[in-house]
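Peptidase S1 domain-containing protein (Anopheles epiroticus), 232 aa
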Amino acid sequence: MAAGTDVAQSEVPYQVSFRLIEQDRHLASGAIVNVRFVITQASFIWKLLRSYPEQPLSSLARIRLGQVELRSKADDRFYSISSYTYHPDFDFEAARNDVALVRTVGYIELNKFVQPIELRNGPIPEGGVVLYTDWGAEKGNVGGPLVMIEDGRPQLIGVMSYVYRACNANVPGGFERLWNHYDWITKMTTIDYSHTNFGEMCRAVRNVAAQLLTQNKESVRRRRAIKASMLK
């Protein structure tokens, strides 16, 4: 991976940034799996907790969604962390099974800038083209999603496990192959609706529906304006 280009948030609505609460500093990236779970690199959590042994992850970091700028803004959306789970065979020293699932406090509200990504159940086919997105900072350039586009659908195939120099063509980075952990991920991210606050879910659904309706009305208005201008 070398250089790279800027992307719009609508192109990568699954991308998240884990932020150090005290300094609002980018720690690592991740991807939205569903309305309660984000997937990322396990090692960054392990190292953060080693640095602050007396504090839980929930008091150290939070998750920022819907934004591609590195610096946070006043209207950014943040979610607190409820819990996290390392892969059962995670080995920090060997950098193996370097993946973790992070559960949010409350349901993630979805819109065109905040969307989950499908998890691919299988390896990259021969000749397949992949996309990696991150903020390019040498510190925090881990956990980012490696994605393959198939039939127009983005599919998550990996997360960045290690990188020696950010965006350097001469030094390779390493990715955790998520299709090897497909069964574990799908099992752990299954949502138990028996204790669900359906009022909260309904509000989230209504918000998304209202946003989509507004976007559709705006799209119709633009098409009519273009058609009217062509008839003049």
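The first strand starts at residue 15 and ends at 20. Residues 84 and 136 are 25 Å apart (CA to CA). ok done for today
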